[in-house]
Amino acid sequence: MAFPYLHADAFESGGVTGWTSETDTNSKLAVKHYTTLAGVGSAGFTPYRGAYALHIDLSLGTADAYLEETANFDLALDATFGLRFYLYASGLVTAASDIFHLFALQSAGPVNEVSIGIRNNAGILELWAGETGATRTTSLIQNAWHCSELSGNIDVGGGNDGDINFFVDGEQVGAIVSTLDQAAITQARFGAFNIDAGTTAGHLILDGVIFDDLRIGPELQRFPNSQIFTQSGHLFVGPGSVDSAAILSTTADNTLYLRDLDAARKEGV
What is the value of pTM for the model shown? Predict the structure, then answer.
Protein backbone atom coordinates (compact mmCIF):
# COMPACT_ATOMS: atom_id res chain seq x y z
CA MET A 1 0.00 0.00 0.00
CA ALA A 2 1.39 3.37 -1.00
CA PHE A 3 2.03 6.05 1.60
CA PRO A 4 0.89 8.73 1.46
CA TYR A 5 -2.32 7.47 -0.08
CA LEU A 6 -3.13 8.00 -3.75
CA HIS A 7 -5.92 10.32 -2.58
CA ALA A 8 -7.01 11.34 0.91
CA ASP A 9 -9.34 14.12 2.02
CA ALA A 10 -10.93 14.60 5.43
CA PHE A 11 -12.00 18.11 4.33
CA GLU A 12 -9.92 19.61 7.16
CA SER A 13 -8.83 22.43 4.86
CA GLY A 14 -12.40 23.71 5.09
CA GLY A 15 -12.82 23.44 1.32
CA VAL A 16 -12.57 21.15 -1.70
CA THR A 17 -9.12 22.10 -2.98
CA GLY A 18 -8.17 18.41 -3.05
CA TRP A 19 -10.51 17.85 -6.02
CA THR A 20 -10.35 18.92 -9.64
CA SER A 21 -13.85 20.40 -9.84
CA GLU A 22 -17.28 20.69 -8.20
CA THR A 23 -20.71 20.31 -9.84
CA ASP A 24 -23.66 21.55 -7.76
CA THR A 25 -26.36 23.60 -9.53
CA ASN A 26 -28.75 23.34 -6.53
CA SER A 27 -26.06 24.52 -4.06
CA LYS A 28 -26.73 21.60 -1.75
CA LEU A 29 -23.12 20.47 -1.26
CA ALA A 30 -20.71 22.26 1.07
CA VAL A 31 -17.82 21.61 3.43
CA LYS A 32 -19.00 22.76 6.85
CA HIS A 33 -17.36 23.43 10.21
CA TYR A 34 -18.64 21.45 13.18
CA THR A 35 -20.23 24.58 14.64
CA THR A 36 -22.34 24.93 11.48
CA LEU A 37 -23.17 21.22 11.26
CA ALA A 38 -24.38 21.31 14.86
CA GLY A 39 -27.22 23.58 13.76
CA VAL A 40 -28.34 21.33 10.89
CA GLY A 41 -31.16 18.82 11.39
CA SER A 42 -33.25 18.19 14.47
CA ALA A 43 -30.40 16.74 16.51
CA GLY A 44 -27.44 18.45 14.85
CA PHE A 45 -24.49 16.74 13.21
CA THR A 46 -20.75 16.48 13.73
CA PRO A 47 -17.86 15.39 11.49
CA TYR A 48 -16.74 11.80 11.87
CA ARG A 49 -13.42 13.17 13.10
CA GLY A 50 -11.81 16.60 13.12
CA ALA A 51 -13.43 19.98 12.53
CA TYR A 52 -14.93 19.72 9.03
CA ALA A 53 -17.04 17.36 6.90
CA LEU A 54 -18.86 17.40 3.57
CA HIS A 55 -22.61 18.06 3.93
CA ILE A 56 -25.28 17.44 1.26
CA ASP A 57 -28.87 18.65 1.75
CA LEU A 58 -31.07 16.50 -0.51
CA SER A 59 -34.11 18.74 0.02
CA LEU A 60 -32.65 21.38 -2.30
CA GLY A 61 -33.27 19.48 -5.55
CA THR A 62 -32.31 16.40 -7.53
CA ALA A 63 -29.57 17.93 -9.69
CA ASP A 64 -26.18 16.25 -9.39
CA ALA A 65 -23.97 17.43 -6.53
CA TYR A 66 -20.50 15.93 -6.64
CA LEU A 67 -16.77 16.51 -6.46
CA GLU A 68 -14.70 15.23 -9.38
CA GLU A 69 -11.04 14.24 -9.45
CA THR A 70 -9.34 13.55 -12.78
CA ALA A 71 -5.85 12.54 -11.66
CA ASN A 72 -5.50 10.79 -8.29
CA PHE A 73 -8.00 8.01 -9.04
CA ASP A 74 -6.59 6.99 -12.44
CA LEU A 75 -6.17 3.23 -12.77
CA ALA A 76 -4.71 1.20 -15.60
CA LEU A 77 -6.17 -2.13 -16.70
CA ASP A 78 -5.49 -4.92 -14.18
CA ALA A 79 -4.84 -2.39 -11.38
CA THR A 80 -6.00 -3.04 -7.81
CA PHE A 81 -7.80 -0.41 -5.75
CA GLY A 82 -9.23 0.36 -2.33
CA LEU A 83 -11.67 3.09 -1.29
CA ARG A 84 -12.93 4.06 2.17
CA PHE A 85 -15.17 6.86 3.34
CA TYR A 86 -17.46 7.52 6.29
CA LEU A 87 -21.18 8.16 5.80
CA TYR A 88 -23.89 9.53 8.09
CA ALA A 89 -27.43 9.69 6.65
CA SER A 90 -30.41 11.30 8.37
CA GLY A 91 -34.01 12.09 7.46
CA LEU A 92 -33.91 10.54 3.98
CA VAL A 93 -37.21 10.79 2.09
CA THR A 94 -37.20 8.64 -1.04
CA ALA A 95 -39.85 6.93 -3.14
CA ALA A 96 -39.87 3.17 -3.65
CA SER A 97 -37.16 2.10 -6.14
CA ASP A 98 -35.39 5.48 -5.92
CA ILE A 99 -31.62 5.22 -6.22
CA PHE A 100 -28.60 7.52 -6.34
CA HIS A 101 -24.82 7.29 -6.38
CA LEU A 102 -22.42 8.35 -3.65
CA PHE A 103 -19.20 7.45 -5.46
CA ALA A 104 -18.11 6.14 -8.85
CA LEU A 105 -14.84 5.24 -10.54
CA GLN A 106 -15.34 6.16 -14.18
CA SER A 107 -13.66 5.42 -17.48
CA ALA A 108 -13.65 7.80 -20.45
CA GLY A 109 -17.13 8.92 -21.44
CA PRO A 110 -17.62 9.03 -18.49
CA VAL A 111 -18.80 5.46 -17.85
CA ASN A 112 -19.31 4.05 -14.35
CA GLU A 113 -17.03 1.06 -13.73
CA VAL A 114 -17.21 0.84 -9.90
CA SER A 115 -20.14 2.34 -7.97
CA ILE A 116 -21.62 2.70 -4.49
CA GLY A 117 -24.82 4.45 -3.43
CA ILE A 118 -28.16 4.44 -1.62
CA ARG A 119 -31.52 3.10 -2.75
CA ASN A 120 -35.08 2.57 -1.51
CA ASN A 121 -35.90 -1.11 -1.91
CA ALA A 122 -39.67 -1.40 -1.38
CA GLY A 123 -39.51 1.00 1.56
CA ILE A 124 -36.21 -0.27 3.01
CA LEU A 125 -33.21 2.01 2.67
CA GLU A 126 -30.08 0.20 1.53
CA LEU A 127 -26.45 0.85 0.76
CA TRP A 128 -25.51 -0.78 -2.53
CA ALA A 129 -22.43 -1.46 -4.63
CA GLY A 130 -21.66 -2.85 -8.06
CA GLU A 131 -20.27 -1.91 -11.44
CA THR A 132 -23.13 0.40 -12.47
CA GLY A 133 -25.98 -0.56 -10.12
CA ALA A 134 -27.12 -2.38 -6.99
CA THR A 135 -25.48 -5.81 -7.30
CA ARG A 136 -24.77 -6.15 -3.56
CA THR A 137 -26.94 -4.46 -0.90
CA THR A 138 -27.26 -4.11 2.86
CA SER A 139 -29.71 -2.21 5.05
CA LEU A 140 -28.79 1.40 5.82
CA ILE A 141 -29.28 2.46 9.44
CA GLN A 142 -29.77 6.21 9.60
CA ASN A 143 -28.41 8.55 12.31
CA ALA A 144 -25.23 6.50 12.71
CA TRP A 145 -21.78 6.63 11.15
CA HIS A 146 -20.91 3.84 8.71
CA CYS A 147 -17.55 2.88 7.23
CA SER A 148 -18.16 2.25 3.52
CA GLU A 149 -15.50 0.43 1.50
CA LEU A 150 -14.85 -0.86 -1.98
CA SER A 151 -11.82 -2.82 -3.13
CA GLY A 152 -11.00 -4.99 -6.10
CA ASN A 153 -9.26 -5.32 -9.41
CA ILE A 154 -9.94 -3.57 -12.73
CA ASP A 155 -10.52 -5.85 -15.73
CA VAL A 156 -7.27 -6.79 -17.45
CA GLY A 157 -8.92 -6.04 -20.80
CA GLY A 158 -10.76 -8.55 -22.97
CA GLY A 159 -11.05 -11.21 -20.28
CA ASN A 160 -13.99 -9.77 -18.29
CA ASP A 161 -12.16 -10.54 -15.07
CA GLY A 162 -12.69 -7.35 -13.06
CA ASP A 163 -14.07 -7.67 -9.53
CA ILE A 164 -15.43 -5.56 -6.66
CA ASN A 165 -15.53 -6.29 -2.92
CA PHE A 166 -18.07 -4.35 -0.82
CA PHE A 167 -17.63 -3.79 2.92
CA VAL A 168 -19.77 -1.89 5.44
CA ASP A 169 -18.47 -1.33 8.97
CA GLY A 170 -15.67 -3.81 8.31
CA GLU A 171 -17.92 -6.69 7.21
CA GLN A 172 -18.05 -7.97 3.63
CA VAL A 173 -21.48 -7.61 2.00
CA GLY A 174 -22.27 -10.70 -0.09
CA ALA A 175 -19.92 -12.46 -2.47
CA ILE A 176 -17.34 -10.73 -4.64
CA VAL A 177 -18.90 -9.08 -7.69
CA SER A 178 -16.90 -10.78 -10.45
CA THR A 179 -16.48 -11.28 -14.22
CA LEU A 180 -16.79 -7.54 -14.86
CA ASP A 181 -16.00 -5.97 -18.23
CA GLN A 182 -14.30 -2.68 -17.31
CA ALA A 183 -12.14 -0.05 -18.97
CA ALA A 184 -9.24 1.89 -17.47
CA ILE A 185 -10.26 4.49 -14.86
CA THR A 186 -9.75 8.15 -15.73
CA GLN A 187 -11.68 9.95 -12.96
CA ALA A 188 -13.86 9.63 -9.85
CA ARG A 189 -17.00 11.38 -8.60
CA PHE A 190 -18.04 11.71 -4.95
CA GLY A 191 -21.23 13.22 -3.54
CA ALA A 192 -24.84 12.58 -4.58
CA PHE A 193 -25.62 12.13 -8.27
CA ASN A 194 -28.01 10.32 -10.62
CA ILE A 195 -30.70 11.18 -8.06
CA ASP A 196 -34.24 9.91 -8.79
CA ALA A 197 -37.11 12.42 -8.59
CA GLY A 198 -38.71 10.85 -5.50
CA THR A 199 -35.71 11.71 -3.34
CA THR A 200 -36.93 14.95 -1.78
CA ALA A 201 -35.26 15.30 1.64
CA GLY A 202 -32.43 14.13 3.83
CA HIS A 203 -28.94 14.99 4.98
CA LEU A 204 -25.70 13.22 4.08
CA ILE A 205 -22.48 13.82 6.01
CA LEU A 206 -19.39 12.44 4.24
CA ASP A 207 -15.93 12.35 5.77
CA GLY A 208 -12.53 10.66 5.74
CA VAL A 209 -12.16 9.75 2.04
CA ILE A 210 -9.13 7.56 1.30
CA PHE A 211 -8.21 5.89 -2.00
CA ASP A 212 -5.23 3.62 -2.56
CA ASP A 213 -4.04 0.48 -4.33
CA LEU A 214 -5.30 -2.00 -1.70
CA ARG A 215 -8.16 -2.22 0.78
CA ILE A 216 -7.89 0.47 3.46
CA GLY A 217 -9.94 -1.07 6.30
CA PRO A 218 -11.99 0.71 8.98
CA GLU A 219 -10.63 2.76 11.87
CA LEU A 220 -10.51 0.72 15.07
CA GLN A 221 -11.74 3.71 17.11
CA ARG A 222 -13.39 6.97 16.16
CA PHE A 223 -11.42 8.93 18.79
CA PRO A 224 -8.20 6.98 19.54
CA ASN A 225 -5.60 8.22 22.00
CA SER A 226 -2.94 7.94 19.30
CA GLN A 227 -3.52 9.19 15.76
CA ILE A 228 -1.49 9.12 12.55
CA PHE A 229 -1.85 12.10 10.22
CA THR A 230 -0.95 11.88 6.53
CA GLN A 231 -1.97 15.50 5.90
CA SER A 232 -2.84 18.61 7.90
CA GLY A 233 -5.80 18.13 10.24
CA HIS A 234 -7.44 18.94 13.55
CA LEU A 235 -6.31 16.53 16.26
CA PHE A 236 -9.17 17.40 18.59
CA VAL A 237 -12.01 19.89 18.77
CA GLY A 238 -12.24 21.60 22.16
CA PRO A 239 -9.91 21.20 25.14
CA GLY A 240 -7.10 18.70 24.78
CA SER A 241 -3.40 18.07 25.18
CA VAL A 242 -0.60 16.37 23.24
CA ASP A 243 1.61 14.11 25.33
CA SER A 244 4.13 13.45 22.55
CA ALA A 245 4.51 13.82 18.80
CA ALA A 246 6.90 12.30 16.26
CA ILE A 247 7.50 12.36 12.50
CA LEU A 248 7.42 8.83 11.14
CA SER A 249 8.98 9.71 7.78
CA THR A 250 12.76 9.44 7.35
CA THR A 251 12.95 12.49 5.08
CA ALA A 252 15.45 14.88 6.65
CA ASP A 253 13.65 18.16 5.91
CA ASN A 254 10.17 17.17 7.14
CA THR A 255 8.69 19.59 9.68
CA LEU A 256 5.91 19.08 12.22
CA TYR A 257 3.80 22.05 13.31
CA LEU A 258 1.35 21.96 16.22
CA ARG A 259 -0.96 24.95 16.50
CA ASP A 260 -3.48 25.88 19.16
CA LEU A 261 -6.48 27.33 17.32
CA ASP A 262 -8.50 28.20 20.44
CA ALA A 263 -9.76 31.76 19.89
CA ALA A 264 -9.89 32.31 23.66
CA ARG A 265 -6.19 31.58 24.14
CA LYS A 266 -4.37 34.54 25.74
CA GLU A 267 -1.25 35.95 24.16
CA GLY A 268 1.88 34.70 25.83
CA VAL A 269 0.15 31.80 27.61
Answer: 0.91
